[in-house]
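#structure-requests
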Amino acid sequence: MNNGCDFMYLSDNVSNCHSFIFNIKLADYLEVTDLARTSGGNIDGQRLVLKSQSAKKIREQMTSDFENGGVLPPVVIGVVDQGYEVNNISSSGDIYKYIKENRDSLCIIDGMQRTEAMIRARNCMERYIRVELWLVRSLNKLIYRMLVLNTGQVPWTMQRQLEVVMVPVIKRIQGSIDNIELPTTNDVQRRTQPGKFQASKIIESFLVFGSRSEKVNTRDAIAEEYVKLDFIESSSKQEILDVYIEFLKRIVNLDFQFGRIDSKNENYRKFKKGCDILGSQPALIGITTAFAIKILGRPKLDYEPEKQRKNMDVIIGGFDGFIDKLKSMNVNELSDFVNLQALNAMSPSSASTKIGDQERTFFKGAFNVLIEENFDIPNMDVCWGH
């Protein structure tokens, strides 16, 4: 029975996503996904076709099964389209036309290995395969969809899921914020100036902003269930990315002001110059957590959207005034105000394996003081000595 014209539609009312499952000829699928397949899924960070011996053996078995009439699990593709209207699709032909027109932005969310296996199948180009298409109006909802799709799958940690979709987010951040530079881990560039952050560190900061917990560590514990649930819950209620970008704009401005303290003091233990403050991941995570909680509410205790908007206006306005105050100072005044000597003396110095957690908590408390004092402090000693 030829089911090539059938499709099934479901709406995800939580994340405002649209799911279509349909059948398509393999040849047509390969045509519309050509760019995605040759561009690493069209999502930087997507797992490429694996080349290990075990992966090859598994693909060979999939190819053999497919050649013999086996049905592989659906390949999952995605498109971010802010102007998409669900009523525009009423048949599988409409779906094919849509993905063909949007092939440049189409991404393969899940199925690179299956696609490679089907390509190797002989005389199967006229076979129908099953494909799932997710249409979303924002990158943040695509992130939400990826988390829901992959949560609980052992081979995919939270970090891996985010890497698959976060580079478009990083690009949006770069397009929204002046004077920010976000090299990836592949670039292996050291931080040498204000406004320059490893992209992976901004990813972690964004995750922390969503979960509002400074104890998230994308390198070691990002797959823990409480992190997943907190982030999913928060991102499903509002456009966290938009709020985060407004916050990050101020962080970059603050970083440039701290960076004016450029004379390096080798006698200081860790923070030898101003650029070192927000170049420290614990400091970035601490300030992120403090602002996220004050704007959005504590984990499990979200403020109503109207209160969040009011908090945003008041807190960001105060933050802008604080940065303007720093801008008005000369370098000597700024150095006295920030007081790196006091910061080095008061920040955690334990050799404990938990030093990272201690530092994050320290900076969360420090910047929490700044917010609670409405950004009106005589100097940063008030924050460092909290």
